[in-house]
Input
Amino acid sequence: MMHSRIRFRQTLFATIFLGLACLSTFSFAQTAAVPKKAGANSESTSANASSESKVRDIDGVAAVVNTGFITRKEIDDRIASLQKQGAKLPSDTATLRKAILDRLIIEKVQLQEAEQDGVTVSQKELNKIIDDIIARNKTTFADFKAKVVASGMSFDRYKEMLRNDIVMSRYREREVESKIKISDAEIDNFIAEQSMGKGAAARPVSSSPVAANGVDEIDIAQIFVPIDPNAGAGTQAEAKKKAETLLRDARGDVDFLKLGEMASKENPKIKFQELGYRTPDRLPQLFYEAVRNIGGGQLANNVVKSPAGYHVLKVLDRRSASAPQSQQAPPQQPDQEPATSGAPQNIMITQTLSRHILLKNRAGLSDQDAERRLAGYRAQVVAKTADFGDLAKKYSEDGSAANGGNLGWMGPGELVPEFEQAMNRLQIGEVSPPVKTEFGWHLIQVLERRQAELTTEKQREFAKAAIRQRKFEQAYQDWLRQLRDSATVKILNVEDAATGNR
Output
């Protein structure tokens, strides 16, 4: 069975660029003025200086990046785009503008490097991608163009931003993703450590005993205090202090779930999340290392620091994912050779049959509008005035619509985390509230669940995917840091809004 994560990406390959474009308002690299050599014509030098001054007066240059620059208007445009999408933005304007500028600098450097390396998108390719977006949105070119213009940008500007997004994606794939190599030995070691090897042997007795041929599943909840990776030392110290305070409170006589909910209500930036039962390979490595030696009902000893922020973790429960006694192999006959302790063992997993209605990220559809539409569909299903499958056929915006939104049988790790977590909380027949993922907004209904055997081949597929994801996250962050460190950047004025229009 093809993984639904792959299925999602195939279905939404073109349209995801539209969502990215709504968040991207940067321009192509422009050549900055080069100082004249000694003895050059002073009149020419004066003209160049006057030209540069004029550009600065009109655009309001915020930063010079290598041989290009970023204007304050670009920052204004990015903020305006986020506001139109209903994004929750920091109330501190200076902090917001700095964060936006940092992002624009990274994007600018990527585009400059891609251009130098010859990564391009032809006009024919761009037109084909736009045609695919229009087809998947089931609209006409005229209507699509009108929606783009209504969102506050010209259609030429939209095409430029879309081209830039594609260039950056191709450059990232070439420089990072294509260079990740996974050996058979790595896969073998991963499976051994997670199922039967030293990783399993090192784990303590949990709230649910783990069978010899089983895999320990861990149910973790977290309170997450986010930080901007480019935030100053003072902001990071404040976030760490808040997380440590929450950890101290959690050690007292308080319900961790209620503590997380209260913290989230007091500060919407703080997130509370229950990850659900997961095998170690489906947990972030930082999380697993923090909880691998603690049992159910216990807190991680320390706050966990990740590139995204600080995490307070609690193990809610542990259980075995091994096969039930009735499904275990019969006793061996005397003339049979016993299985070696190092031989791979099949594992039982829970598969879920679900369906969904998807509203994709796109220009002209804000988060509030998508959430409101899906809430309306949910109300109809709950009131039994409409059938979920019929609504999916009519309104869902991906390839599963023709089948009433049916996604087929899916196992752990085959769906994006936000979708899987919401799905796992549902009872059979229950419909979720609207759920946001990287692909858009979903309404989910669980139809059935079953126990299935995870074969050795599947184990290797899952192991390879987990290793690749782990390597990519680290490689991607390292790559971005190297790009940023190698760039020549001069910040001029980020706090003021632009004084004119380009």
Residues 456-486 form the longest helix (31 residues). The longest strand covers residues 440-454. Residues 1-58, 196-215, 322-344 have pLDDT under 50 and may be disordered. The radius of gyration is 26 Å.
